[in-house]
Amino acid sequence: MNFWEYLGSRRERLQFETWQHASMVFQCVLAALVLGLLIGLAVYRSGRLSALATSTAGVVFTVPSLALLGLLITPLGLGVAPSVVALTLYSLLPIVRNTIVGLTGVDRTLVDAARGIGMTRTAILLRIELPLAWPVILTGVRVSTQLAMGIGAIAAYVSGPGLGEQIFSGLARLGGANAINMTLAGTVLIIVLALLFDGCFVLIGRLTTPRGVRV
Questions:
Q1: Which residue ranges traverse the bilayer (predicted)?
Q2: 191 pLDDT exceeds 90?
Q3: What pTM did the predictor assign?
């Protein structure tokens, strides 16, 4: 059976696993975006706290994925829970770092001018700082998504959902029938998903970034 025949014969299963993988990555990156924004907003005015937040997220990011998933088995068991927690943690660093960089990179003269005309701190944040920092934050989200897309395949190690099952099963059966097809199918579909997600973020950036900032 060649690769295309394998795709045709396993179409429904591959479609389901592709949907699982995309859904898992989307939800984890969304959770990381909310957490990352909250952390970044809480610390960006303090250099010491910003460094602490970035360093903490960096330490988590350096933990090998298999080790982190293995450690999460004890408190969370197998399946979705450890996969989601691990992917969310790995997605935090680029978002936290870019949120801090984006917010601290806003021209202070604009902030001072807004404060001078009587705008509150909340209004300045929502109407000036966040819109100007958004392109940098979105870049962090794009990086996190690509990372989560790849690391999500390793979630199969703890019986997590997604296309990792194809890759792990194929590697475990190397030399057997369809082993290469299984591994290749999982890998190719993850690449396709990564490209689709990145294209969506490019479109979101164009639609949500103020025209003056784009220029």
A1: 24-44, 51-73, 79-96, 132-159, 179-204
A2: yes
A3: 0.89
